[in-house]
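We include the entry.

. . .
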Amino acid sequence: MQEVRVVSYDPDWPRAFATLRDTVMPTLKDIALRIEHVGSTSVPGLDAKPIIDMTVVVREPEDVAVAIQALERLDYEHRGNLGIIGREAFYAPPGAIPHHLYVCVEGSTPLINHTHVRDHLRAHDADRAAYARLKHDLARAHAGDIDRYTRAKTDLLMRILATAPLTPAQRAVIRAQNA
């Protein structure tokens, strides 16, 4: 089991993301629209697990397979969608800055999920503080069980996503994936 450790916000996280982005982007420049810093490390002032989350955004679904092949050439290991339709996940290369990498199509439900939660927490101090408290409480309660830690954050994240610009079909997908 992966240990769950939440630490104080580190102002070096944006630089770590930039280093990772600048390493990956040259290989993906022909298909990636951009690479987004997402997850808790992308929210200034938010305590987090010290692991950078980044999402490669591609234009079309057909570009996902091309991105997978390009990332495998950089020693990323494709993990599949991990139960999140429209999002492909990867293990980071050995020795890299600790991070999670995802590939999503522009406008997809998982991309909206990633960016809306980030943007909401950047803009709402009370929600950011509540999320930090919850993360610390859950890290203590589920220190040895990352899956339980992640599931226990769902209610708060779903409240944030209730304000996202999602279609009814996209909301149904998110509800089903978090049931």
The two ends are 22 Å apart (CA to CA). Helices lie at 13-28, 62-73, 109-123, 125-141, 146-152, 154-161, 168-177.
